[in-house]
Amino acid sequence: MKHPEFSLSDELIYLNHAAVSPWPKRTSEAVAKFAEQNMLYGSYFYPEWLAKESELRSQLQILLNAPSADDIALVKNTSEALSFVAYGLDWKSGDNIVSSNEEFPSNRLPWQSLAKQGIEFRQADLRNSTSPEDALFALVDSNTRLLTISSIQFASGLRLDLEKIGSFCKQRNIFFCIDAIQSLGAVQFDVQAYQADFVMADGHKWMLGPEGLGVFYTTPTARDRLKLTQYGWHMIKDTYNYENKPWEIHPTSRRFECGSPNMLGIHALSASLSLLLETGMAVVESLIMEKIDYLMEQIHRNEKLILLSQKRNQLNSGIIIFKHGMAQNNAFYKYLQKNGIVCALRGGGIRLSPHFYNNNEELMKAISIMELYCD
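^ that's the sequence the OP posted. Answer follows.
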């Protein structure tokens, strides 16, 4: 039986939430209501929209277990937030940044662009080590200023032990930055337990929201270490006093929001998060892992399919990678897409990323379609 919040076409089995997710019914309705308000009343309901903006910050605070909603900035995307950190810190020539060789470009390009300032970007090989965390630690020295890592790797599904990394960084006074786009909305997340200085993520993947709106978390101490790279009316302390002269930078994370908010996106993302929070992230994570376990078992049992993902104790993610033993990845991918299995070409194979609402009937059908190709 389909989840009542999802009305996907019967032609599709949607297993691509690590890319762009479909919206829940309530999100579509929230956007329609917002559009109608604009059409009929213009900005008359703006005070209500500002209340929705505050609600979204509180929802994100809960999702990240942030100490305060003041630690939450609403940004355009992960790349913008990462660039805030890359160009906000006061670097010195000879400093280095430690990361991995599996990062999505968003968590690689901003740091590599600092090379002209004499900053080295070091990439650990997470696969050729007994511990991916130890592979990161091995590259750290006295000149390391920041360690930046994806909580879950987009192309492999590898999930890192963030508490271990955070403790390591804190002991050495190294900034800890987490690209959480493959975690938030899929697994439980705790910025305080991870001792993270910076965390960022887009809303359009596991959070089931729209593109064009993301979250940027900073601790007060780390926030004050970032010089601002954007300025505008919205990032000052007395935001709605348009005659405010002189002005002060906003004391909270709102300092990173230089201009008018994405109110359409705010309404959409808030609606999507309401579903996740009502369900409970512990339940969401448990349901996703059940589906991952089922898919891994069925793929492993099939002699013609090769499972590339490996279980890692309790640190499993919502992503699995596999391939066909006798077919080219691209041909197999096209077959799956043509037959309604929405997936992705990643990590040397096919990436599947189910969400909590996918049902067993869908997963069984997907396996059957794969087996038909194998025959």
